[in-house]
Design a protein that fits this description.
This protein is of the alpha/beta class. The protein contains nine helices and eight strands.
Length: 216
């Protein structure tokens, strides 16, 4: 029996790409570089600052200057992180349905807590999350199982009693390795070249209402 549903945040619960991309394009403009199309931004948005900087500036973690670029990007995101971000369609209805069924829900994201905590309070969830685990809550982030198991401990449920819903390969890997059932959110930030059929997902759903159907 499923007692809890855990979700990724960016690209699963909330459409954060407009603000993630807006911060990137503002930074690129300040440094004399061309903006990136939102379609390209959406394809990498789940990979956070590192993915966005690789797209926009061609700079990767470990490259000289990366830390400075990342700090500058996060400063731009700080100024707009909640400007255009909204819940995806049907998310509110899904969370209300979980509450009616007595199923608790929570968030396990790689987003830093400095942003997660403030954003969660502004999104207007139909029912509040029972646990929120950010990328820096634990010593390790996804695809590690550490934040997944921490969330279970906080909820008092076994991993086998959880669904984990996410839109990235690391989400599916972390959930599977932790012993949860995994659900791939096909409405999320998935690139055209991603081989999702090779990701360790137990289910793939095209809209949030499909998750309620899985729960019966």
């Amino acid at each position: 029996m499923i007692k809890a549903v855990l979700f990724d945040l960016d690209g699963t619960l909330a459409d954060t790409a407009p603000d993630l991309g807006g911060a990137l394009n503002t930074l690129l403009a300040k440094r004399g570089l061309p903006p990136k199309d939102m379609a390209d931004i959406r394809a990498v948005a789940s990979h956070g600052a590192a993915g966005l900087l690789a797209l926009g500036a061609g700079i990767s973690r470990g490259d000289e200057g990366f830390d400075e670029w990342r700090a500058a990007y996060l400063a731009e995101y700080e100024a707009c992180f909640d400007r255009d971000t909204v819940l995806f369609p049907q998310i509110s209805e899904l969370l209300a349905a979980l509450a009616r069924k007595g199923i608790v829900w929570g968030i396990v994201t790689n987003k830093p807590a400095a942003f997660t905590d403030r954003l969660v309070s502004k999104l207007g969830f139909a029912a509040p999350p029972a646990v929120v685990v950010s990328g820096d809550t634990c010593a390790e982030a996804k695809p590690s199982v550490v934040p997944m198991l921490y969330a279970c401990e906080q909820l008092g449920v076994a991993p086998q009693e959880c669904l984990y819903v996410g839109d990235a390969q690391r989400d599916m890997q972390a959930g599977r390795d932790a012993g949860m059932k995994t659900v791939l959110a096909l409405w999320g930030y998935i690139a055209a070249g991603d081989r999702t059929e090779e990701w360790p997902a137990d289910f793939a759903v095209s809209c949030p209402s499909d998750i309620e159907a899985l729960l019966g």
